[in-house]
Amino acid sequence: MPWSERLIWGGVLGGIAYFFVPRIYNARIKAAEEEEASKVREAELKTRRLTSIRVLLTSKDWLGPDAEAFEGLSPKQIAEFMKEHGISADDPFEGMSPEEIDEFVAKTGMQI
User: Fold this and answer.
1) What confidence score (pLDDT) does residue 25 get?
2) Whole-prediction pTM
């Protein structure tokens, strides 16, 4: 293969790499960021659900703004979520230390 042909092929492959490598690299970075953001949103939703369950069980206000954390869940799924996290309908603060209960009450502004 003559040198001129090698230079042409090198230029073509270099041009292809110049256009496609950054796109592939940026797409992978964006996908990793979206995956991390998804995990953060899932953790925030779990925290909101735990807080909402305790507030709803304490105040019995099922129509309040705290109920929107359960949007899209059936009553069976909510019961399974409560069972999974050890929340009792009789005592929503079961398993929490007095300091955790005080912090929870201060954070939510609810009356016990």
Assistant:
1) 93
2) 0.54
* d(C-alpha 51, C-alpha 44), whole Å: 11
Integer Cα distance of 104 and 112 in angstroms: 11
Question: Which tokens go with 47?
Answer: 């925290």
* DSSP string of 17-59, one letter each residue: HHHHHHHHHHHHHHHHHHHHHHHHHHHHHHHHHHHHHHHHHHH
CB-based contact 70:49 (threshold 8 Å): yes
CB neighbour list of residue 73: distance below 8 Å, 6 or more residues apart: 81
**N residues, the chain:** 112
Contact between residue 87 and residue 94 where contact means Cβ atoms under 8 Å apart: yes
